[in-house]
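thought: fold this chain, then report.
action: predict
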Amino acid sequence: MTVCVPIKDLKDTTTFAETVASARGPVIVTRNGKDAFVSMSIEEYESMKLEAARSRLYQAMDRAESDFAEGRVHDASETVASLEARYGV
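observation:
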């Protein structure tokens, strides 16, 4: 269930911090009845960052598998030799 609090509740920082800590997700702060911003616990934030990173990894893996299936691959040793020759490494 989404937790919404009016912006005036931020004046009591201790209570607001407890609300955020006890919420099972982000807390929406409203101003004049409209969403102003979102606050969340550090655990929730870290979990979101991890999920976003995991999603990017899965997308990269899907692209790699697609490239492999379509034959868009190069031999690693040939690629290294080409780079060494081009850049004199």
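thought: worth noting. The longest strand covers residues 34-39.
final: tokens above.
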